[in-house]
């Protein structure tokens, strides 16, 4: 079920009107959770970021959370980098204007392509209009810390904007390989390969692009088709290793955990699938402990969901993952 969120038209609104979305309700720039000391926003190109949102919602002292899925323009994985940066900026600005003080880019493509440019070139000027601190966080570094079992150096915490807990799984032995399934743009960015090499230069990274998978998940395609696609991508990775598979893999698109059972079946019981959402939640909990300026109010713990427009069919998989129906408000993003 859906309401509506407004912030100004973009050319893509024609796409929204053509889709079978829910009834619309006007939403102002004021937050529904105005009594909270701080809210956290989660941005994704579609429904995939709900995997991150779900983990954050299970934090012991969880904050108020606002989700924005740019479903009308999903997937991001094959778009030019400049478009990804611009659309991610629009999504982040919307969440900040809703009252969020922290925005997590719960989309690997957005995090790998847009996070650094926005942190360096846009956020310092944009935050000047607020009378409270705001920050933009990614999900790649927590995932890598968890996957490699290697903590980032404390002196670099101010650069990454993150502070991390001890990884829940042991460090990999030398000369092992981590597998990466991701969108075409994430693989081409080589961010995972570069960041893993900074921490563990002795490890190999085997990246397998899955160019059509996020879009198929976002459209709510049948499970048989999704299974065939995943089997094809797993077989392609296997062929790269002469018939073997890595012992540990990262699902480097937040859409993929929505079909994690299909990946597990294709990979077999001997392969560990890194829980990116839990890694991000652990990292954020530590970040909030360290950054008292984002202290949460006692009333925190509510969730709100917004979207730029989606097909009803696609919502079924998202609600199945979430465990209940989700009431979405429609969002319009404006050029920044």
Number of domains: 2
Radius of gyration: 19 Å
Give me the secondary-structure category: alpha/beta
The number of E-state strands comes to: 11
Identify the CATH class of the largest domain: Alpha Beta
CATH topology of the largest domain: Rossmann fold
State the helical fraction.
Answer: 40-55%
- Named CATH architecture of the largest domain: 3-Layer(aba) Sandwich
Pattern of helices and strands: EHEHEHEHHHEHHEHHEHHEHEHEHE
Strand order of the largest sheet: 1-11-10-3-2-4-5
Textual characterization of the structure:
The protein is α/β, with parallel strands linked by helices. It has 2 domains: 192 residues, 3-Layer(aba) Sandwich (Rossmann fold), CATH 3.40.50; 108 residues, Rossmann fold. Helices cover 40% and strands 15% of the residues. The protein has 15 helices and 11 strands. It has a 7-stranded parallel β-sheet, with helices on both faces. A 4-stranded parallel β-sheet has the order 7-6-8-9, sandwiched between helices. Helix 7 packs across helix 10, helix 7 packs across helix 14 and helix 12 packs across helix 13. The N terminus is likely disordered.
């Amino acid at each position: 079920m859906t309401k509506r969120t407004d912030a100004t038209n973009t050319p893509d609104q024609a796409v929204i009107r053509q889709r079978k979305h829910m009834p619309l309700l006007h939403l102002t720039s004021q937050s529904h959770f105005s009594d909270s000391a701080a809210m956290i926003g989660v941005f994704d190109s579609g429904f995939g970021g709900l995997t991150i949102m779900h983990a954050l919602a299970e934090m012991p002292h969880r904050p108020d959370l606002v989700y924005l899925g740019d479903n009308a323009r999903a997937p991001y994985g094959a778009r030019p980098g400049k478009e990804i940066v611009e659309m991610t900026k629009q999504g982040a600005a919307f969440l900040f204007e809703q009252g969020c003080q922290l925005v997590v880019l719960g989309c690997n493509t957005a995090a790998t392509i847009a996070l650094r440019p926005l942190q360096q070139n846009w956020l310092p000027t944009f935050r000047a209009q607020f009378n409270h601190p705001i920050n933009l966080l990614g999900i790649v570094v927590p995932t890598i810390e968890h996957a490699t079992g290697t903590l980032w150096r404390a002196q670099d915490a101010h650069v990454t904007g993150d502070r991390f807990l001890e990884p829940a799984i042991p460090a990999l032995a030398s000369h092992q390989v981590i597998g990466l399934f991701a969108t075409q743009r994430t693989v081409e960015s080589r961010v995972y390969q570069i960041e893993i090499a900074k921490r563990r230069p002795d490890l190999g990274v085997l990246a397998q692009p899955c160019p059509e998978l996020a879009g198929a998940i976002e459209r709510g395609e049948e499970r048989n088709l999704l299974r065939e696609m995943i089997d094809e991508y797993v077989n392609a990775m296997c062929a790269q290793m002469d018939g073997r598979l890595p012992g540990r893999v990262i699902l480097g698109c937040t859409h993929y955990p929505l079909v994690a059972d299909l990946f597990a079946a294709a990979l077999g019981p001997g392969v560990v699938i890194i829980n990116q959402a839990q890694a991000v939640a652990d990292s954020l909990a530590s970040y909030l402990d360290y950054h008292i300026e984002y202290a949460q109010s006692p009333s925190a713990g509510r969730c709100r969901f917004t979207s730029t427009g989606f097909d009803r069919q696609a919502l079924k998989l998202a609600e199945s993952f979430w465990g209940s129906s989700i009431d979405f408000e429609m969002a319009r993003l404006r050029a920044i």
